[in-house]
Amino acid sequence: MRALRLIKKNYKEIGLMCDVALDPYTDHGHDGILKNNYVENDETIKILIKQSILQAKMGCDVIAPSDMMDGRIGAIREALDKNGYNHVQLLSYAVKYASNFYGPFRDAVGSKKLLKNDKKNYQMDFSNSKEALREVALDISEGADFVMVKPGMPYLDIIKLIKDNFKIPVFAYQVSGEYSLIKNGINNKILNEDAIYESLMSFKRAGANAIVTYFADHIANKLH
Length: 224
Prior knowledge:
Elements: H1 2-10, E1 17-20, E2 33-35, E3 38-40, H2 41-58, E4 62-65, H3 72-82, E5 89-96, H4 103-109, H5 111-114, H6 130-142, E6 146-150, H7 156-165, E7 170-174, H8 176-187, H9 194-206, E8 210-213, H10 216-223
Parallel strand pairs: 1-4, 4-5, 5-6, 6-7, 7-8
Antiparallel strand pairs: 2-3
Helix pairs in contact: 2-3
């Protein structure tokens, strides 16, 4: 929160996008309140609302709930509007899969060792494509301004499916496992660096309007 205030004070031209979820603050690695080994959806949303309001107060321009609780987009939108933050936009992690590609990130932050059970009771089944359409439709109806597909490359078909069915900007998230596979391939001389650009182009070709990637600095330096 201090960082948000500092950035807004000194760099007013920079837009700020903030993740909303509880997993950085829990001792069990889940994205919500855990009771009897099950994440409590509605109790979690109450805290996510408080987190969102505080971030908006500190200057966040786009609130990005990544927790995958049902109904949280509508609840956060209503709370933001009631508190005078109707200009703050919502990027919903509408299509976030219970994926094996998050491994390097979880290792880095230490949550892999903490995580009790898995996140399959609230993240999405990677074998089900139709659920993505339902989740996006619900989040749009609740007030989402953009939606996220996470991970990215294993779900290019999902990105295209959403673009073909909805008029809403779609973000693709190239997660840590995707990054690590490509980076290790380059380091071990299995791939050359052009594989980075090729992987990102696949997102654009599928219809993504924006890409979140650990290769951002690499691509920016190459383009400049």
